[in-house]
Design goal:
Two copies of one chain form a homodimer. The first copy, chain A, is an alpha/beta fold and 401 residues long. Chain A folds into two domains: 241 residues, Alkaline Phosphatase, subunit A, CATH 3.40.720.10; 139 residues, no CATH class. In chain A, the strands form two sheets. In chain A, strands 9-8-10-1-11-12-2-13 form an eight-stranded mixed beta sheet, with helices on both faces. In chain A, strand 8, helix 9 and strand 9 form a beta-alpha-beta unit. In chain A, helix 5 packs across helix 9 and helix 10 packs parallel to helix 12. The two termini of chain A are 16 Å apart. At the A-B interface, helix 4, helix 5 and helix 13 of A face helix 1, strand 13 and helix 14 of B.
Chain lengths: 401, 401
């Protein structure tokens, strides 16, 4: 039986509330062997109290040794096998600028680039132009008209942009036009399947107009197209878990990921405090809340151990306000580890905590990597975390008689 | 996505070096409940130092409760699912005598047997004839000519031999001709698929000539054919991991297993010391080294606890010379357990150690089964060990954005 056929079959309604608090990149490493990680260093009385009354474990986002991006990391937490569902780069980039993709949309990541007089690429990132220039050039590109196709252009940052073609019958399977090196011309759009031939025509048309519009804008006198993709077909959260789910995320990409599985995106504001207010305001209207905290990842990427520790302490301070709402199940975890020592996402298993009144408590009295290694959940694939949430919420029937 | 499609996609080049030191059958059991295993009894200061700065775990070669042979055990360590890839007995036997099998080869394990006057088998092992007699009889069989087919005969030990038929279009799917009991005649060769009908003709021809050649050689006056097999189709190491890999193994079978996944077989000499010299001599030319140490298995099979302990200490003494080369990642593990108490391979999970400068260190300060049970790698399928090696070597891209 397919995993989600099982969840569809077993799910049952009740009036419990589940909160999944995702502290992005929370897992870490000690700076020196035998030292403490960021989470172990942080002073976290509230998380430690939850750890004491809950059960800990370490989740593996994809497979041992595999480092996930944010997309696969969150799909796993949401209970979807990240190797089964693939989110294309263009789609992720569109989610990141809060673009609401539909089923007929082809999303593309664009990079402004520099062409020399021979038409060869001399800089694949157009000299990393300032964001304000990139924004103006995107306004120019937004004037492009293609018959029968709605065209959307959104600036992302510096030389990066998102282009969306909206029309029925457009496939999303094209080669990148970025040749990945300089001294050669950009590649022509090429289809990887028959359905995408129509998209090639649209892309050619778009690029011809763009070449004309940008010709005097050196170093950003052209662009390459990358990560062409359509929305993946992901069964909705409501369908596979029977949960009315709301997303409380400050950053667009995480709202977008939640939208991919059909969560409602709530007005989260810009701070953890505002996110707590959002939870309170919507508490009665949802069964499940996905709360995303970004800064444990960004400080990890910066390699700033002290800052990450502080961010963890900031998260810890928000716990009492969440617990005031009396969630039946609370989960604290991350979508992957982001050790300051590595300044990047990593494959290391992710500290995970689940607390409810039917936990089999373990001996752990603090929330840290070493505690989690001794925890009652053991080491487990992240894609099963939602099932543990459902079980602890009494939302699954027995399987078989 | 298939596991190796993922590794093909994520692999990236760098100049790191990985050493996988396989101590065959290293896992063990205490002789008395509550006692120490062979590994725990051994004095291993160098392995303990690695354990302190690395991460430990227990690997499951195939599945819980499944005892692997050397073939599946090593395939797992090399990162191939041992249930997906099947190495036939004939192939393994050919590898064991250093026979370099090609794609057109059908490898067969032969057993000399005794036939009585009615042509029934009276002894399935020909009275366990001495190796020197077996060798002479193999020389006789090597004179057999079959039109259009190259025939190779290699003596293995006592009554055991290997036969290889080399010709295009020969299938490798035949029943054994050994009836597994005495008092009945050997079975006739029979095909299990259409492609193997041609092989049946070749085998019939071979057996008819053998019967004539051996008729006066009682108790070894005939032979049975077993484990007929062709090389399995295994994607190469280079392809699935992007690693240039060298095998440093004293025993032919392990060189052969390495050859199955297209590792280069290096001149390893006959001792651990010579193996270290081989590592040193080839250090700059390879990304990955598979180093095989046989004697922890053979002493386990002998049930000689003290001898196995001594062999583990011998291995430990070689660690400093390996670490002098500064491998970026070192793994110490086994292909299975071989507890002296059982005098055989077993299913018990295998002590495993990985050390690099991006390990999440655990509390373990010694290398033994009890330590490994508390280790940060947890209990994991052996087929993922290579992915952990790749990750710790920085040789994987992030999966998804």
């Amino acid at each position: 039986m397919e995993f989600h056929d099982l969840t569809r079959k077993l799910q049952r309604e009740n009036d419990t509330k589940i909160v999944m608090l995702v502290s992005d990149g929370i897992g870490g490493l000690p700076l020196e062997p035998g030292g403490e990680t960021e989470l172990e260093t942080a002073n976290t009385p509230n998380l430690d109290a939850l750890a004491t009354r809950g059960t800990l474990g370490l989740s593996t986002p994809v497979l041992p040794g595999i480092t996930p991006g944010s997309g696969p990391g969150h799909l796993g937490l949401f209970g979807y096998d990240p190797l089964q569902y693939n989110i294309g780069r263009g789609v992720l980039e569109a989610l990141g600028v809060d673009f609401e993709l539909g089923a007929n949309d082809v999303a593309i990541r664009g990079n402004f680039c520099s062409l020399d007089e021979q038409g060869n690429i001399s800089d694949r990132r157009a000299g990393r132009i300032a964001s304000e220039i990139g924004m103006k050039l995107c306004d120019k590109l937004a004037t492009i008209k293609i018959p029968g196709v709605e065209v959307f252009v959104r600036h992302v940052k510096e030389y990066r942009l998102v282009i969306v073609f909206r029309a029925e019958g457009l496939g999303g399977n094209l080669h990148d036009t970025d040749p990945q090196r300089t001294g050669v011309p950009p590649l022509s759009p090429a289809a990887l399947d028959e359905q995408s031939e129509a998209t090639v025509k649209v892309a050619e048309n778009f690029l011809a107009q763009a070449r004309e519009l940008l010709k005097d804008d050196f170093p950003a006198n052209f662009l390459t197209l990358r990560g062409v993709a359509k929305l993946p077909h992901i069964p909705s959260y409501k369908e596979v878990y029977g949960l009315k789910a709301g997303a409380v995320a400050v950053y667009p990409m995480y709202r977008g990921l939640a939208r991919l599985v059909n969560m409602d995106v709530l007005d989260a504001g810009q701070t953890l405090d505002a996110q707590c207010s959002c939870l309170e305001a919507n508490w009665n209207d949802y069964d499940f809340f996905f709360v995303h905290f970004k800064y444990t990842d960004s400080t990890g990427e910066d390699g700033n151990f002290e800052a990450k520790v502080k961010r963890i302490e900031e998260l810890d301070a928000a716990i009492p306000r969440i617990m005031n709402l009396n969630p039946d199940v609370i989960i604290v975890t991350g979508d992957h580890s982001t050790p300051c020592k590595m300044k990047s996402h990593s494959w290391h298993p992710v500290p995970t905590l689940i607390a409810s009144n039917v936990c089999r408590t373990d001996a752990c009295t603090g929330f840290g990597e070493a505690d989690c290694l001794q925890g009652g959940l053991g080491q487990f694939p992240a894609k099963y975390l939602m099932s543990l949430a459902m079980a602890h919420a009494g939302r699954y029937e027995k399987y078989g008689a």
